[in-house]
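The material for today's practical consists of a large collection of protein records. Getting from the letters to the tokens is the skill we practise here. To make this concrete, we reproduce a full record directly below:
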Amino acid sequence: MSEIHYFDSHAHIMAEEYKDDFEEMLKRAEDAHVDRIMIITLSHEETMRAIEFAKRDPERYQVAAGIFPEDVKDVTEEDWQIFEKTAADPAVTCIGEIGLDYYWEKDPQIRSLQREFFVRQIELAKALHKPYLVHSRDAVQDTFDIMKEHGGHGLLHCYSGTKEMAREFVKLGFYIALGGALTFKNARHAVEVCADIDENYLLSETDCPYMAPVPLRGKRNEPSYIPYIVRKMAEVRNVSEEYMAEVIDRNWTRFLEEYR
């Protein structure tokens, strides 16, 4: 059988959790044939480090920059202007992760501010002709309503909604990324989504350093663990792991290219 190659659409490898073994972590990913990694950054400093790092291999590493929903309450107009300039950098491939998180935030005013910044960042992504990567937790209906109204080209990262709602996102042309949660014992929704939706809209991710897949649950996650996730996706869809990896790679290429 030919060598299987993998892709991680959501990896926080600039995080502090990797500072002690960064190069070793990258080597493990390379040894696992994780050929492409989307580096997610959540601050200006992280984005600048990621851009500089990605220069060593632009085909393997790409960078996404976004204002995370939990951080919007601290964003000044000066911060926004800096973000706009950073987002326009050709080295930034995608805008993200952006979106809504109602799990941690109960204040209606802050939730409203999250929605405002979600819209602003979608509109910025559209103006820059770049895809956007969406975080949605306990906010799937508002997320859907905003994405339906404002459009653009995006994906739902670490999707945790129902298969019915996933179908609605796909109808609008949005992609669905699944991660370690798919391998968990109680992962009913994720398994149903993986089995149900059009394969042309499925992507794989780790969301590392969080959400390590079984059998490594509880450990620090990293891109080299992607094979566990793709293997589970293949099992759920009753296809070979090689086929599943090829589909995901093809989907990611299309996701980036069809919006240029």
User: Anything to note?
Assistant: Residues 6-257 form a domain with the TIM Barrel fold (CATH 3.20.20.140). The radius of gyration is 17 Å. Strands lie at 6-11, 34-41, 61-65, 92-101, 132-137, 154-156, 175-178, 202-204. The mean pLDDT is 96.
